[in-house]
TrEMBL record:
Keywords (A to Z) from UniProt: Membrane, Transmembrane, Transmembrane helix
Limits of the Protein-glutamine gamma-glutamyltransferase-like C-terminal domain: 83-145
Pfam family, one: DUF4129
Keyword flag Membrane: yes
Transmembrane segment boundaries: 20-37
UniProt protein name: Protein-glutamine gamma-glutamyltransferase-like C-terminal domain-containing protein
Source organism of the structure: marine sediment metagenome
Length: 167
């Protein structure tokens, strides 16, 4: 029984059925594991992290601007920036954007209907924005603080519930 001149597997260059079955099982299990652990693999490789970092940096910059406007008692401008920050987080973390002719209230309702976000937090942001933008009287300090508290709650929920949209 010499193996000289013979195939590694069998005579006549035929691959045994057992080898094919084992290979098929290994490929199927490997594909399943790749699919099952795809998010961890992507996170480990750092793919997609740049987009998240850019969104988070933009939100942090906006929060600093909101604090500065608050110190200057510029509640109207700060409330508009709060609203824009909520939209950025909604699009970036939840994949929910604002339609071209969609009102603030309509977007708020759309976000509330998701079921995984606190309606009170969203409502506080929307109310502060609507009063600052369209109200006859200026926004009070308490109304602004309620909106800011709502924004912080929304950002916490959006980053824990949502992932960077993979679209």
């Amino acid at each position: 029984m010499t193996m000289i001149g013979n195939s590694l597997f069998a005579q006549n260059n035929v691959i045994p059925t057992e080898f094919l079955l084992v290979s098929l099982v290994v490929i199927v299990v490997g594909a399943f594991l790749l699919f099952y652990f795809r998010k961890q693999i992507i996170a480990a490789l750092g793919v997609g992290g740049v987009k998240k970092t850019i969104i988070e940096q933009e939100i942090e910059q906006r929060l600093v601007q909101i604090r500065q406007l608050h110190r200057q008692q510029m509640f109207r401008e700060a409330s508009v920036l709060m609203w824009q920050t909520m939209i950025l987080a909604s699009e970036g973390f939840l994949g929910v954007g604002r339609a071209p002719n969609e009102s603030a209230r309509q977007l708020g309702v759309k976000l509330m209907n998701r079921g995984d976000l606190d309606p009170g937090a969203i409502n506080a942001i929307v109310m502060a924005f609507e009063k600052a933008r369209y109200g006859q009287t200026p926004l009070t300090t308490q109304e602004f603080k309620d909106g800011l508290s709502g924004l912080h709650q929304f950002l916490q929920m959006a980053t824990s519930v949502g992932e960077i949209s993979e679209e």
